[in-house]
Write a structure and sequence with these properties.
- The longest helix is centred in the last third of the chain and has 17 residues, at 146-162.
- The protein is globular and about 60 Å long.
- It has 6 helices and 5 strands; from the N terminus they run αβαββαβαβαα.
- It is of the alpha+beta class and 210 residues long.
- It is 34% helix and 11% strand.
């Protein structure tokens, strides 16, 4: 059984009760495991803050962990389908971004990963890159190294749970809005690394000129 299967099994055993996502998944990224289950159409309780998880004490883990509450045994929601990107479209996207990492601007020597600027978990449905214009691709996607994509996934998972946008690379700057997630990812460095770097550079240069 996968980690998602193990977690779902525990949630079903504790139907209607808050279930720890740490020891039940055996994963250091339990939020990712939860998303896998939720995408299958299972219905979980959503808190008033808009997040799915609740921080509670777990007697097994002997610490506060994120818990989720499954409401029904069988899937009741539409299963979220992730669209693939064919080789031709992938080559087009890599060429469009000059195979450069959005966070650093440097050339990617390893395998580049095509990242959704708005995390897939916040999308109502996936974006079909094959039908987009170049401008639309730039609006919806960016390139990242594997390591940077993992960093973004953790940051976006935190935001999804707490509605709090983590500082990009530990720098508390947002080119639009602030650390509070108000239904829009725009302004966050994790959302658009290139635009964030350019905005911060303009801000620094403006202060220097003064």
């Amino acid at each position: 059984m996968s980690k998602a299967d193990n977690f779902l099994s525990e949630c079903k055993k504790n139907l209607g009760k808050w279930t720890c996502s740490l020891h039940t998944t055996g994963s250091n990224q339990p939020a990712s495991v939860f998303r896998e289950v939720k995408k299958q159409g299972y219905e979980f309780e959503k808190s008033t803050s808009g997040s799915w998880g609740r921080r509670m004490y777990c007697p097994v883990c002997n610490q506060k962990t994120t818990h989720y509450r499954l409401l029904k045994l069988e899937p009741t929601l539409t299963k979220q389908v992730r669209l693939g990107i064919d080789k031709r479209t992938r080559a087009r996207i890599l060429n469009l971004f000059d195979n450069r990492d959005a966070f650093t601007g440097g050339s990617i020597s390893s395998v580049a990963e095509i990242d959704h600027k708005v995390p897939w978990t916040r999308l109502d449905e996936d974006i079909d890159a094959t039908v987009l214009s170049n401008a639309e691709i730039r609006r919806h996607f960016q390139l990242l190294t594997r390591e940077h994509n993992l960093l973004k996934d953790r940051a976006c998972s935190h935001c999804k749970i707490y509605n709090e946008r983590p500082p990009f690379l530990e720098i508390p700057y947002w080119y639009k809005g602030d650390s509070h997630y108000c239904g829009d990812c725009e302004g966050c460095g994790w959302y658009d690394g290139e635009k964030w770097r350019k905005s911060l550079s303009e801000l620094v240069n403006g202060h220097k000129q003064k």
